[in-house]
Amino acid sequence: MLTFLASVFVFGLMIFFHELGHFAVAKFTGVRVLEFSLGMGPKLAGIRSGPTLYALRLLPIGGFVRMAGMDPEENAVAIGYDPGNFNNKTVLQRAAVIFAGSFMNFILAFLLFLYIYMIIGVPTYSNVIGNVLAGKPAQMAGIQPGDRVLAVNDQPVKNWPEMISQIHPNANQPLNLRIERQGETQEVTVTPALDPERNVGQLGITVDDKSMIYEKKGLFESLKLGTANTFAITGLILQSIIQMITGAAPPEVGGPVMIVNEIGKAAQVGLNSLLMLAAVLSINLGIINLFPIPALDGSRLVFLGLEALRGRPLDPSKESMIHLVGFALLLGLMLIVAYLDVLKLMGGGD
C-alpha cells in the first residue's frame, strides 16, 4: 500500500506540474483550453469554469490538456477565424505552450530541492563521538565515546563534517577541543597523528551511527543548492543518455515497473529520499519529453521548427498520423521494458 500511495503521489505530482505548464502558457497566450485532466479513462469528477473542464479520471497513468484546434477534425469543420484556436497562434507562441510542460518539470525539481533543504533538512552526522580507538591520540587525551565536540580551537562545529574539516589539516599540531560530557563542558588538548596514506590528521575516533541529524539551510543557501542540484542532475542525465547512444556506456533502461519499485524503496527510507527521487524523476521526464520522438513534445517542437522554415504548417492529418504511429511504438516499447523489469525483479533477468 505504501508503494502504491507513494507512486500515485510522485507520478501525480510530475504529471500535474507538466500539464500545468501547458495550461498556464496556453491561457497566457489566449488559447482556449477545453479540458485539464489528471489521469486517463473514465471521468471520476469534474468541474467546469468558463470553457474549461477540470477533471479527475480513473486511471492514474497520465494527464492531458485539450486545447481548441488540437484535433485535426475540429480544424476541418472550423468556420472563420478563431482567436482561441491553438493553430491560429504564432509559431513562437505554440512552441512556448509545448515547451512549458517540460520546463515545469525542471521547476518542480527545483522546488522539491528547495523544500528538502529548507523544511526537511540535509541528513548528516552530529558531532557526537561513537567510538575511541585504543592507542590513538583521542584515547590518550582522555576523550570518551559519547562526548560531543562543540568547538575545535574555538571554532564552533555543529556536525561531524565540520569537525573533521578542522582536524584533517592539522596533523601533528595541538588542537584544543571543547567537549560536552554528561551535560558538563570541558577543554581537551589533543594532537592529531598523521595518516601517511591519506596525508591527513587523525584522532582515532569514529562517528556515532545513531546520531544522524537533519540540518536545515537558510533561504539563500537553499536557493543556491536547489539551482545547483537541478543543473547538476540535468547534466548527469544528459551525459548518461549521450553515453548510451554513442555506446560509451551500456544501456540501462528502467520502465514504470522498475520506477515504482524504486519509489517504494525510497518511501520506506523516508520523505527526504522520496522527494529526492521525485526531483530526479521529474528532471528525467522533462528531458525525455523533449526528445524528437513522435507523440512527445519534442517532436511537436520539431514540426513547429519545420513550419517556421517552410512558412507553412505540415498537413495536420499527416502530423497526427505520425504522432499516432509514434505513440503506438512508444506504448509497445513500454510494454517490453515493463516485461523486462518484471523479469529482473523476479530474478530472471541479467
Mean pLDDT: 86
The global form is elongated
Approximate strand percentage: 15-25%
Helix content: 40-55%
- What's the number of helices? 10
Query: Major beta sheet, specifics?
Result: 4 strands, antiparallel
Which segments are poorly predicted (pLDDT under 50) over 5 or more consecutive residues?
A: none
Order of helical and strand elements: HEEHHEEHEEHEEEEEEHHHHH
Strand order of the largest sheet: 6-5-7-8
User: What is the total domain count?
Assistant: 2
Structural class estimated from helices and strands:
alpha+beta
Rg calc: 28 Å
Q: Report the span from N to C terminus.
A: 28 Å
- Count of extended strands: 12
Overview of the molecule:
The protein has two domains: 2-121 and 218-345, no CATH class; 124-215, PDZ domain (Pdz3 Domain), CATH 2.30.42. The longest helix is centred in the first third of the chain and has 30 residues, at 91-120. It is α+β, with helices and mostly antiparallel strands. The two termini are 28 Å apart. The strands form five sheets. The chain has a four-stranded antiparallel β-sheet with strand order 6-5-7-8. The mean pLDDT is 86. It contains ten helices and twelve strands. Its main location: membrane. It is an enzyme of class 3 (hydrolase). One of its GO terms (biological process) is proteolysis. Residues 120-159 form the PDZ domain.
Secondary structure blueprint with pairings:
Blueprint: H1 2-28, E1 33-49, E2 52-67, H2 72-77, H3 91-120, E3 122-125, E4 129-132, H4 137-140, E5 148-152, E6 155-156, H5 160-167, E7 175-181, E8 184-190, E9 193-195, E10 200-202, E11 205-207, E12 212-215, H6 219-246, H7 256-269, H8 271-288, H9 297-310, H10 316-345
Antiparallel strand pairs: 1-2, 3-12, 4-11, 5-6, 5-7, 7-8, 9-10
